[in-house]
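As a warm-up, study this chain.
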Amino acid sequence: AWISWRTATPYWTTDRRFMWVNPEEVLLASALWMTERANPYFILQKRKGHGDGGGGLAGLLVGTLDVVLDSSARVAPYRILYQTPDSLVYWTIAHGSSRKEITENWEWLEQNLLQTLSIFENENDITTFVKGKIQGIIAEYNKSHDIREDDDTDKFKEAIAKFRKLFIMPEEEKLVNYYSCSYWKGKVPRQGWLYLSINHLCFYSYLLGKEAKLVIRWADITQLEKNATLLLPDMVCVSTRCSEHVFSVFLNINETFKLMEQLANIAMRQLLDNKGFEQDRSLPKLKKKSPKKVDLDARAKSERYRALFRLPKDEKLDGHTDCTLWTPFNKMHILGQMFVSTNYICFTSKEETVCSLIIPLREVTIVEKADSCNVLPSPLSISTKNKMTFLFANLKDRDFLVQRISDFLQQTTSKIYFEREITGSLSSSDDEVGTTMFICLLRDRQFNLNENALFTLACFQAKEFLKEQAWKNHFTEYGQGVCMYRTEKTKELVLQGIPENMRGELWLLFSGAINEMATHPGYYEDLVEKSMGKYNLATEEIERDLHRSLPEHPAFQNEMGIAALRRVLTAYAFRNPNIGYCQAMNIVTSVLLLYAKEEEAFWLLVALCERMLPDYYNTRVVGALVDQGVFEELAHVYVPQLYDCMQALSVISTISLSWFLTLFLSVMPFESAVVVVDCFFYEGIKVIFQLALSVLDANIHQLLSCKDDGEAMTILGRYLDSVTNKDSTLPPIPHLHSLLTDNRDPHPEVDIFKLVRISYEKFGSIRADVIEQMRFKQRLRVIQAIEDTTKRNVVRTIVTETPFSIDELEELYTLFKAEHLTSCYWGSTSNPMSRHDPSLPYLEQYRIDLEQFKVLFALLFPWACGTHTDDLALRVFRLLDHNADALINFREFISGLSVLCHGDLTEKLKFLYKIHILPVKKMHTPDYRMYLRLWNQETKAKLENMKDLPKLNQSQFIELCKTLYNMFSEDPNEQELYHATATVTSLLLEMGEVGKLFCSPAHKTDEDEDDEDDRIPVCRSKQERTRCKPCDVETNSCVAGPLEDIKLEDSSPKDTAMSSAMLISDDETKDDTSMSSYSVLSTGSHELDDKLQCEDIAEDTVLIRNGGPYAGAGHHGKAGLPHSASIDKDWAITFLQFLASVLTEQALVQYFEKPVEISARITNAKNVRKVGHQHMSLSDYEISLSD
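Now compare it with the structure written out below.
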């Protein structure tokens, strides 16, 4: 039968209000349920053991049974049953996870169905009507929401509801599947349910009143293994950096483990590549639909399909079916499977090496159903442009298959694909012809040879001719081009060596690059044109390495060859900026150019970097490190006697990178290494592993006697340098690797073809799927090791800049990164790609936006308090965002936290002052950046630059007062701090008013300056002198005007537009005990309605304006705020005035000097899991969060 692996449309809804279910028969309505409401036709019931009270011992046992036996583990705690009066059979028609949800359904039934049911006379008619009505509601809902019906709809919906309720997960977190299993907590197994979602692994168990919950991010998993012991024959071990978790007793452990691998792999991809957080095209949109297990199965199937047939990365498998293929070369019907995707029809035999076939739909001309017979049932004939016809038979769903192929053929773009002539990617075809011909001439160049050498060369050319003839005969028998039958004979010819002038063609064919080149005509030319004249880091690195690419080869000792190499490397860097350019790419590309045209070399490089050697050539060579780990595992299995020795010498890690990154091209003579490349393009990475193991095995005795890594490297270097290709027609080329050899006798020659055959004989059992399994295991280890290295480097970079300890910085970095990942999972206001870029320096790799910062601010910053927290977080964020890109990195985050936790009084007050000078509404205004540029020049909080801080105007001062009042709302000394704040506020109001008297546009005259002391109001009392001092400090920056007729006593409020604030002395404030918990603010501003909201400050705040106080209790204070008031533009205070005023109040001094213990806040933050606006602590649930 046709098995479709297309991504399925999810069939369930996440709308909890819609909980109607297809009617299911229930025989015992009262078992384990309690009836809460009833009428003649419907019963509303609650599950025993649910909610308050728990139902005593019976409820406790029911709760345990629900989890252990799954009697209702997938069922919500509320349900509605339908029953006719004379029947003993009940029907479940609705479920609900809360009383509110089920009540909505109950009320709908009473309002819409009860009266209708009373008119029926026959109970069977009533039952039919009710069932039909419920099914109709479900069908209508599914139709309007594009939901597909499925047998598991109801159960899966309720599993989702339970998952979200148990673990407080938002709708963005999609459940993929869930399994019954046991979780081993210590030596005691806890039977429960394992929930696998897109971003988390969760477990829940309820046994005899005790809950056990576990939540682990996939991104935190360092090891995932399936093991077996005598006690536990099947178990899955999940390891994080700080703990290990064991699960067992799975009904289908293989399916469960496979899904866990897929989800962990997705998480690792997200950590590795910033594009991993983009919407994956192979899955439904995660924020709208939920990917089911079938979606991930389809994804995995497509990945294996693409790897097996070397197809482009965006090709998706549609389905596959068993069939037979008629093979004309041996006159047999071969049993195998046909695979159909959007652009290809492929076939592989049951026995892997017998036959495989790739038919691009762009090559198909005719698809027709042939006549069936006993020998050839249900045959299907497919003809191609190159006159080949393929006959498939035993197709059970032939009609459907033909329809699918026809649909895809119609979608195939009707372009004319043609063989490209020698003209390549240059705008001038003559230049390209010259370049290609130049390289070909150098490749076949004859040097001055004597008679013996000429005879030897003739023998080589004869061997080359025989190879060419063998391949031509093969093409005649098996077909030529992409539709060729690929058999064991094809593999034999590859192992014997591909002829020099056929290498480019066959490399394109076997690598699959020919498909991408054919479907992207003109792509390379466009890239070359766009990249010309562009310069970046990648192009600089390319220029540096151009002359290091096979410098011993004549083709790259001339500018024409160098120019071709430059164009290919630069074009690829522009195609894939995530990779850009990596060392070793130049060596591989130069070899590709020797045997292929420029455009062909480019597409070969694409196949190499993006499919055949994934992640090898990024900035951290992750793929090569992963395969290094795989190679170590293989060495442990296949050469165990050598493994311990090599590990002790650290040789494997040294040799594998150079061997794998360049496919032996940098460590083996050129004419021999290209044979390795031949095999690699045909068989893939397994050839490189086989060959590496063969080299170790051939030198096992010498390596066992080595005393250090240098000696081991010399042995391996001499051996590889002695590998020769006796069939090569190329002239001998000096090899750089010979520099590693010593002055001893040269190593005996090793024939490359013999070495390759030995590798197949001894290690040919290595399978591609086993390698992929090993790669997954190593990828977890490598990427988590890279993440740990990143954390250490970030901490090492900033540890000297902050008082925090290394351990505290590591914990803070973990929280910072976790918040970044959570926002990527569940949505944010900014694009995750802009916040996570592994190619950036360590400090810039993770950045958070404002919404993420608000969460961390509430958890870690000591000033976070009450409803004012978000507003204060916004102000702090803007101050820390030095480059005004709406993102802050870890260094910026720590700089702010350090001031608030470890800064002295002056630093904290300066920080508080700065955050209120920044504009409130807009983040990218010019004055905002001006202030940032000014403050970024500060390295320390020095007294001498305090004068440089801008003054605080009246509106900003009001916001500062609001911040102070809200900051103390939960402090034990709240009343005392309010009183101190009121005193400071009053003092600063006076200073601002007095400052206006000295800041006049008129210039001082010498006479004015002489008489200045006589005109300045004299502070008579000690308290008044104390108030005036801060202002006097700044008088040198103010220009005083004529003030002869103005005295301090005359500054009381007048009935004018420029009225000033009422002055309240310290004595008056302190003597009036009724004012001890009140706040005093100036209200001479029309913005008070917006900025001084009474609910934002203390409810007992007194607003003073025009001599009259307006109590701001709740919303009633708004009535006292006149709209005609205006901002006093001349009113301002300086930081030194603010500092001096605060120093007069011991309560405030103690508050700001009080040390903050960050470790306690870190512990609390680790025990709090943010989900939307809800938090749950470790004290409430048993939660394991991997760091």
